[in-house]
């Protein structure tokens, strides 16, 4: 009897994990497509859209992107045993920051160039999807820096 119960519980956990990961992947893809599309629209019709709308959109989307990227881990840093050992930034983290901030720099050069803007923002959308799926901004996914108190 216990064997059947354990099999059922294992099956339920596996189904739950699969559905959560699929839903998370779909949301990440949708998020990347919406932001890339909005950047494309803003780069092509910048004369119609006021500057304050673009600035407000940039602040909101970058904040949301950082929030989604940082808080997708399962363990909060405050639950770790040693509060002095914090994760170190790595190449994936800095690459993720570059991906997040890059539309600010190349948007002005793409105004009026529809095909180049479509290609650039499609590539940016793919990199944004990678950023969200890989957990590049998630501090819990990196090893700790070893700054513990036991070295004193």
Question: Describe it for me?
Answer:
With 152 residues, the protein is mainly α. Helices cover 66% and strands 0% of the residues. The chain has helices at 2-44, 51-70, 91-106, 114-134. Keywords: Membrane, Transmembrane, Transmembrane helix. The chain crosses the membrane at residues 26-46, 52-71, 115-132.
Which properties best describe this structure?
single chain; 152 residues; mainly alpha; 66% helix; elongated; disordered C terminus
Brief sketch in words of this structure:
Helix content is 66%, strand content 0%.
Mean pLDDT: 74
Biggest sheet character: none
Using DSSP, what is the number of strands?
0
Strand content: under 5%
Structural class: mainly alpha
Whole-number radius of gyration?
20 Å
Cα(first) to Cα(last) distance is: 54 Å
Helix content: 55-70%
Uncertain stretches: 148-152
Counted by DSSP, the helix tally is 4
Shape: elongated
- Element pattern in H and E: HHHH
What is the strand and helix layout of this fold?
Layout (H helix, E strand, L loop, with lengths): L1 H43 L6 H20 L20 H16 L7 H21 L18
Keywords: Membrane, Transmembrane, Transmembrane helix
């Amino acid at each position: 009897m216990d064997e059947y119960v354990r099999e059922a519980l294992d099956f339920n956990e596996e189904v739950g994990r699969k559905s959560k990961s699929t839903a998370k992947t779909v949301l990440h893809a949708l998020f990347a497509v919406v932001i890339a599309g909005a950047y494309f629209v803003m780069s092509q019709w910048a004369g119609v859209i006021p500057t304050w709308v673009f600035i407000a959109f940039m602040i909101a989307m970058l904040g949301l992107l950082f929030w989604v990227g940082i808080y997708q881990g399962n363990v909060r840093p405050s639950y770790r045993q040693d509060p002095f050992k914090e994760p170190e930034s790595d190449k994936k983290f800095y690459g993720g920051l570059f991906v997040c901030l890059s539309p600010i720099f190349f948007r002005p050069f793409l105004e009026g160039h529809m095909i180049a803007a479509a290609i650039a923002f499609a590539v940016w959308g793919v990199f944004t999807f990678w950023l969200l799926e890989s957990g590049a901004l998630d501090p819990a996914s990196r090893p700790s820096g070893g700054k513990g108190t036991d070295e004193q």
